[in-house]
Amino acid sequence: MPPSSPRRLSLQQIVEGRRRAAFVGRTAELDLFRANFARPPEDPRHRFVFHVRGNAGVGKTSLVREWREAAREFGAVTAWVDEGADSVPDVLAAIAGQFAEQGCPLKALDRLLATYRRALHDAAGRLATDGEAATGGPSPGALAAAQAGLIAAGAIPVVGALAGGIDPAVVARGAGGLRAVFGGRARQQEEARLLAEPVGVLTPVFVAELDRVADTVPWVALFLDTYERTAPQLDRWLADLLTPGRYGELPANLVLTLAGQRRLDPVCWGDRGRLVADVPLGPFTEEESRQLLTERGVVAEPAVREVLRLSGGLPVLVSTLAANPGAAGEANATAVERFLAGESDPVRRAAALACALPRRFDEDLVAVAVPQDGPHAVPGLYDWLHELPFVAEPYTGRSRYHAVVRAPMLRLQRTGSPQRWTGTHDRLADAFAARRDAAAHGVDPERLWADEPWRRAALDVLYHRLCARPRAALPDALRAGIALCGQQPSAARHWARTLVEAGEDADSAALRDWGRDLLAAVTDHGPRPTAALGLLLTRAELTDRDRAAALVARAWDRFRARETDAALSDHGRAIAVDPSSERAHHGRAVILRSLGRHEEALADLDRAEEIAPAWAWVVRERGETYRRMGRLEEALAVLDRAHALDPSDAVPLGSRGLVRHVLGRSEEALDDFDRAIALWPEYTWALVRRSRVRTVLGDPVGALADLDRAEEISPGLAGTEGERGEVYRATGRYEEAVACYGRALALDPGYAWAHGSRALAQEALGRVPEALADLDRALELDPGYRWARAQRERLGAVAGP
Questions:
Q1: Does pTM top 0.85 for this prediction?
Q2: What is the mean predicted confidence (pLDDT) over 513-521?
Q3: From CA 515, how far away is CA 3, in angstroms rounded?
C-alpha cells in the first residue's frame, strides 16, 4: 500500500504562516508569555492574567495573535474575542463556538445559551398572552409590558446576537421581581432567574465546562482584544470570575489575556493585581524598526532614517512605509501618500482611499465604494486590499482599515474632494439601507431595533448619512435614537458611538458633542434610557411628533420600573404636545388598565383607534381589555377584527380561543388554538390552553401531548405541571394529580391556583384537612381568589366544626 500523502495546508494556513514569518520585534513580550507556560501554576512567578495596553497602532492585536499561536504550541485550547462580543452572554457564545471548532465543545453551556436565546425571543409573546391568572385577573405589569412591545433589552447586559429580554427595573429585583411583575405567569424559578440574572446563571455553567475541558488539555487560553471598548460591560464580571467562590473554581491551567488602550480599572482589579502581568506596549524601538525594515528589504540608510522619522516607531506605520519608503528628503509627503506609495496605479490608489470610507467592509461594499462597472473599475480589488499591511480581517469577519491609517485617509478625501466624499457616502448609505430592509423581512416592525442584523445595518445607514450631510441628517439620527431607546435600550451606546464616530470622521463638532453627551448618559445610567431621552427632550430641536415619541419611550421605561405616576405624567405630556399620537393614547390605556381603570383605558383606546384605525395593536388591546372586564361577547367581536387586520398574528387567535373556551364553545376554541399554533409552533401559552380544551373534549392523550410539547419548548414551567395535574384530576388519576401540583408548587411556591386545584384532588382522595389547608394557603397568597373562597366555604360546611 503506498504511503498516504501528507495533509495539504489550507490557503488560510499558508497566509497565516506568512504573516507569522513577517512578524518581528516584541521579543521580550513573546519571551515573557512563553516563559509563563513553562512555569507550573503553583509557581509564584506564574501569572494567570496578562494585560497588554497601548495606543492605537502600537501592535496590540498583532502581539496577541502571536501569543495565541504560542499558547497553541504549548497545547492550549484557545478563544479570541473582540468588541463584536460586548456582553457576557455574547462572550460566552463566542468562546463556546471556538472551543467546539477545536474539538472541545461546551455542551452544557451551549444548551443553556440556546434556552436563553429562545426565552428572550418569545418572552414578549409568551408573557403577553399569559393573562389568564387563576384569580381571573392579570398581574399589573405583565400585559402592559408585553403586549405593548416593551420587553426592552437590559438583562445585565444583553446585546448583539443575544439581544432582547427583560427590562432593567425588573432585572434589578431578580427572579422574585419577575414573578411579581408578570403575576406569576413565568411560573418557573430557573427560567425567571435566567432571564433576570443571565450572568449569574450562565457563568457557573461556563466555569464548570471550562474545568472539564481543562482536565483534558495542558492549557486553556482566552484572549479579549479591544478591551477598551468592552471593559464597561465585562470588567466586573471578569473580576468576579477570579474571586474565589463567586462562580465556582476556575482551572489552574487557565491563562486570560486582555488587550486594550487603558490601564485596568483599579476599582474592579485593585486587589487582584497580583494575578496580572501588566504589559505596556510602546512604539517599536529603533532596533525593532530597523529589524522590520531589514526583513522587508529596506536597508539604505537614508530610506531607513526617513521611515523612522515619519513613523515614530508606530508598528502599523513602520510596516506600511516599509512597503515603499521613498526617497530621502521628501519632507512634505503626507502620511496617506506614504501608505500608498508602493502603488503607482492612480486608479488603485483612488480605490484604496474610497474603501476607507466604510467602517468595516466586505466584497459587496468594496464594489459600492468603487463601482466595478465604471471607468475606474479595479479587477481583483478586494483581494488586493487584503495585501495591504493596514487592512485587517478580525474574527468578526468584516475587514477594516487600521484606525491610524484610516483617519488621515478620511481627512484627505473630505477636504480634497467634498463632492466625491458626499457621493460615496450616499452610495454606501443606500447599500446599507438595502441590507437593513432585507433584514426586516419576518421581523416584527415594533421590534426592529432589537434585531441585531437590522440594527447593525441601520446604524451604518445613519453613519454614512451623517458623514455625507452632518446637519441635515442629525434630526433623523436623533429620531432613530428615540425609537431605539423605546425598543432596545441596551444598544443605545452603539447609537451614541455612531454619532461620535461620524462627528470625528466628518469633522462635525455638533455630532461629536451630541455623541459624547449621549454616550456619557447611557454609560452613567446603564440600560435604562431615561437619561438619554431626557437629554433629547431638553436639548434637541425636535418636532412635536418626535417629542411625543421621546416622552412615550420614557413613559414605558418608567412604567417598567413601577414609577406609575411618572409614566402616566409622561404619557399625558405626550398627548398635550401631540394630541394625534396614537402611541401615547395606547400607552396610557395600558397603564390605566393595569390600575383597574378600565373605562378610562377604553376612552384612550377609542382615541388611539380613531387616529390609527388599522393599527392591530390597538384593536388587540381593546379585545384584551374587554376580556379582563368579563365582557366576553364584545371581546370576541373585537378579537375577530384584530385577526382580520393581521391574519399572520397568532396572539389574537389564542386570545379568542380562550374567550370561546370560557363561553363553552370548545370546538371553536380548539380550532382557534390549532390555527394559532400552526402560525407559531412554539406558542407555549396556546399549547397549555389547548390542553385544557382537549381535556374538556375528552382527549386526555392529546392534552398530555400538548403539555409534553410545551415542556419541551419551555422546560420546567410551573404552569405546565399544574395543567398536567388538571388532566390527571379530570380523568380520576388523583394521586398523579397531587404529585403534579406538588412539582408545580416546588417550582413556584406562590402559585395560588395550584393550591386551589390540589385541594380538589385531595378532597377526592378523602383528605379533607389537607384540602382545607391548600385552600387556606391559596387565599393567603391571593385574598381576592373568589373561586378558592367559595370552595373553602363549601368544604368547610361539609367538614363541620
A1: no
A2: 90
A3: 64
